[in-house]
Specification:
Chains A, B: InterPro entries: DNA-bd_dom_put_sf, MerR-type_HTH_dom, MerR_fam. 2 copies of one chain form a homodimer. Chain A is about 60% helix and about 5% strand. By secondary structure, chain A is mainly α. Chain A has a single domain, classed as Multidrug-efflux Transporter Regulator, Chain: A, Domain 2, CATH 1.10.1660. The relative contact order of chain A is 0.07. Chains A and B meet through α5 of A and α5 of B. The structure holds a DNA duplex.
Chain lengths: ~140, ~140
DNA sequence: GTAGTCCTTGACGTCGGCGTCAAGGCAAGG
DNA sequence: CCTTGCCTTGACGCCGACGTCAAGGACTAC
């Protein structure tokens, strides 16, 4: 199959496939006329890459999976190097999720505090005080 | 104070402050010699921006907070527009955290499955099968 | 005067993962 | 023959938040 069909069957674009090739993830045979030629194994590789990218893996992280498939293994994650990437990713995800949760907590607290002060200001409070402290201005 | 001191006191760089100015977030007065001049209010604005960026807000999202400070309010989140940004951000965070958690679950499941198959392969299993199905190759 | 440190504007570089355009080759149908 | 639709390589564009370099002006200290 040629690049257009591979792109369509993998749910991506020809540009993306050529980009993968430029990164050394995909290796195409060439027909006599110079066209790239792919087989079902290539389709599996591309699908593996796409799946991992959907998970938020960046391209370099998909390389072990692709290498694993190219080595003839039945799945991209049949190799130790792929499992190592999985594990590293899990750690990164846990860290990131934790950070986001603490940010969420902080932002939530800020919102609650700001809403409180706003409601304390409205029901008869003073106008918004529109002057700064002018004493200590130029350092 | 001049740009170098502001940068230092805000924990950032002069390049960053000029960038903020180019984005319209910061407005510097000019001394006779052309140097930018800042006051304590500017320092508060920069610190507000930095705090929000640490939370993962992008620059545009900090604009309402800066505008609020410039309008003379005591805090950057004393204005409704800022509260709206807080709320929107909370929603985005919840969505993102949820997505990451489901990814985490999926990756964890993949890892567990792959580890199982690997352990089923090792203790006397066959060599890694290094041939692909060749029948249905060229589509 | 001159060395050193600050400041100025302008412009190009970075990173990832492509999008998009340009200019042209190849194959098939009418 | 001509159009259409695929394919080729090459190269610039994009986004965000700056980093980094260049060339030169301003001010201070000695």
């Amino acid at each position: 199959m040629r690049i257009g069909e591979l792109a369509e069957r993998a749910g991506t674009t020809t540009r993306t496939l050529r980009y993968y090739e430029s990164r050394g993830l995909l290796q195409a045979r060439r027909a006599e006329n110079g066209y790239r030629t792919y087989d079902e194994g290539d389709l599996r590789m591309v699908r593996q890459i796409r799946t991992l990218q959907d998970f938020g893996f960046d391209l370099e992280e998909t390389r072990p999976f692709v290498d694993c498939l190219r080595a003839g293994h039945p799945a991209g994650d049949s190799c130790p190097a792929s499992l190592a990437v999985y594990r590293r990713k899990l750690g990164e995800l846990d860290t990131l999720i934790g950070q986001l949760q603490s940010v969420r907590t902080e932002v939530g607290a800020q919102l609650a505090r700001a809403e409180l002060e706003a409601s304390a200001e409205v029901p008869g409070g003073p106008e918004p005080r529109c002057e700064l402290n002018r004493e200590d201005e130029d350092r």
